[in-house]
Amino acid sequence: GAGVSQSPSNKVTEKGKDVELRCDPISGHTALYWYRQRLGQGLEFLIYFQGNSAPDKSGLPSDRFSAERTGESVSTLTIQRTQQEDSAVYLCASSLRVEGLAGAETQYFGPGTRLLVL
Amino acid sequence: AQKITQTQPGMFVQEKEAVTLDCTYDTSDPSYGLFWYKQPSSGEMIFLIYQGSYDQQNATEGRYSLNFQKARKSANLVISASQLGDSAMYFCAMSDPGGTSYGKLTFGQGTILTVHP
Asked: Which residues of chain A are within 8 Å of residue B33 when distances are taken between CB atoms?
């Protein structure tokens, strides 16, 4: 079956412009996560969606960042008024939440979107 | 707050030898999960192995095993019989099932493994 897909794979933008990144999770996966990976660093959690519950936005670095997800389908991460420090790889992951296996679900990652803000 | 520490920025190993990648963690939660992911130069994150905090035995997946020492809060990855294709960045991560973000992962800084022929 298809894995997690993300688009675009690369995005170059000018400082101050808005960008929208898209994630298609694995079909049937109820949980969806966005992470950011700066060059040579580990991944930083940004936001989490679980079904129709309110998302956990605790990792979003500023109010310029927002994300949406409709049901258990596609998610979009929007960065407004981009800054050079937003340059990073943005990774999306999905998992299937299983009752009784809290925290044990494997997250499957997409290939990421490489964002460069000039 | 949870924290993952990987103290080895880079490691070198000879092909066919075994190598251990270190990972220590800090959490006040009694229930947590520990993961290892591999990230080749192409950038994708590949799941390798999982260990639950209540698991009695160390996890194994093919050539990968996790040396879980709960009292020391360490979860080292052991790769046996290294192959050239194992050269990559390796990340240790912890889940937070008791937190608001359920399975959100906290990652370490990673270790770059280079396998020499």
From this structure: 103-104
